[in-house]
Amino acid sequence: MIVTSASPAAPTLFPLIPSEDTSNSETVNIGCLAKDYLPQTITFVWNDRTNTSIGAANSMTFPPIFNPTGTYTTSTQASVPATDWNNMHPFYCNAEHSSGNKVKKVVRSTILIPIEPQMIVRAPPLKAFSSQYLNSTISCTAVHPCKQKTTLQWLREEVVVDSDFTTTKPIPDGNNNECRTISELVVLKSEWMADKRFSCHVQSESFNNTLEINKQSFCDCPDHTDDVRVETIRPSYAEMFQSSKAQLTCKVYGIPYSADISLLDITWTQGPEKKPLVTKMQPGIDNENDMQYVTATAEVCVTDWNSGEIFYCKADFPGVFPKPIERELRKHIGGTPSAPSVYLLPPPPEQVALKEKVTLTCFVKGFYPDDIFVQWMQNGQLLKPEEYYTSDPILESKMPEKYFIYSKLDISQNNWSNGDIWTCAVGHEALPVNVTQKTIDKNTGEIATPSVFRSQTRTCQKDSVFFHSFIVIIIKDLTFPSFFVKDILEGVMCSLALCFGHPVPFELN
Questions:
Q1: pTM exceeds 0.85, yes or no
Q2: Which of 122, 129, 445, 447 has the fewest CB atoms found within 10 Å of its own CB?
Q3: CA torsion, points 141, 144, 149, 153, in degrees to nearest 10?
Q4: What is the per-residue DSSP string for 374-408?
Q5: What is the pLDDT of residue 131?
Q6: Domain 341-458, what fold?
Q7: Does the keyword Kinase apply (predicted)?
């Protein structure tokens, strides 16, 4: 028990109102502070504006604190509907005490806390400049009292801009009657990279300010132009087989968004005399590392590529490269070509027994050089590359240098059980007609296709009749789909024309 010499006294009450925004709440917690009363016992009752109690369940009283003066202090809290509170409806805190009862009105304050206007200007995201329009936006945000008329104005090099911007109406922020107005100005990459100055001017009854921004003020960081690289990419055998053209690719990568890609010029030339080739440059493409890359391609005859001719890619990039960079590209001539052996493996019995998906595997080994392609067919129809997986070539032996790959195709149990025919077609330059295939189905297992070999010396046959008959026998014996036959015939015609110096008629009956 606390002993005090203070005289009994009734409490003095003070209202406690929430300081945070209550516009998005369902209920609001308000309070009442009782100070300097004695004796300790006190009871609180909360009533609304109709003098009806809000109920004990919606209020609570905190334990009293003994003051150094010998009196007590405590507080009570009530949970009331936010709609009533925000509509300025009063609530009453009733303190019942032996020294005298007291009542305190608790109502939302009508005094607004002064708002200090603020403004923020944000630079354009450099990544946006990579779009086909080569533009981006600068944004200006002003935070201001909702009741004050606020205007935003853009300037370019201190000249008022009257177009190419959008400005929102004031948007309530929900905090102390604050509003937010946002304006966005479209800027061209050429203007931003030229360090043009842009300004946002905000004016209201109590605020007048201008913020300026340009590329230099936004970022003093290095532009990483030293990281830009140039590489050449050889044509794939699959593309050459299907299009009868060899596509040369030059790639400039590691380009920062601050660099002006419109200044980049890439050209392809052929041979020691640097014969110009038709070069197609693609638009910049985003990298995952917040950089860009650009590719430029040129098409040449497959015979030129296979001859070992040297091709040159020259990349000129003012402001990035001190001088043009040149890279060579040619087919590697060396080693002894070796035709692949192809094995088509059925799904293992354990997998078939599960009655789920089954896997066909095409194993290709012993080939050189390593450029090869694999395609799958179902009942003679080509499947999309995304329907199967093919590994990269893997070194099988160093002396002699040979490679192997594998390709796997997952199919449904129904397609396998129904007897569908599955074909693995393999293309490689050391094959007699550049392509071979193996076929399999549930009933027959692997169906061996005729194997055709050619000598390692690549010389043209002098007897055109013999060569003509040899090709016809090959094509008639193999079960290639129509598009393969077409490509084979085109390749044969090209080879014969080069060999004999004139077009050779060819007809498949």
A1: no
A2: 445
A3: -20
A4: EEEEETTEEPPGGGEEEPPPEEEEETTEEEEEEEE
A5: 59
A6: Immunoglobulin-like (2.60.40)
A7: no
Percentage of the chain modeled with pLDDT above 90: 49
- Tell me which CATH homologous superfamily contains domain 12-106: Immunoglobulins (2.60.40.10)
- What is the gyration radius of the CA atoms in the chain, in angstroms? 41
Tokens of 83: 């709609």
The mean pLDDT of 183-193, rounded to a whole number, is: 85
Neighbouring C-beta atoms of residue 357, cutoff 10 Å: 13
Task: Round to whole Å and give the CA distance between 18 and 107.
Answer: 10
- Mean pLDDT across the stretch 295-312? 93
Q: Report the candidate in 391, 388, 341, 387 with the shortest Cα–Cα distance to residue 368.
A: 341
Helix (H) or strand (E) holding 314: strand 311-316
* Helices assigned H by DSSP within 245-295: none
CA-nearest of 333, 326, 293, 325 to 309 is 333
Q: Which two tokens stand for residue 10?
A: 């009734």
Sorted by sequence, the CB contacts under 8 Å of residue 163 that are 6+ apart come out as none
**CA nearest 136: which of 146, 148, 124?**
124
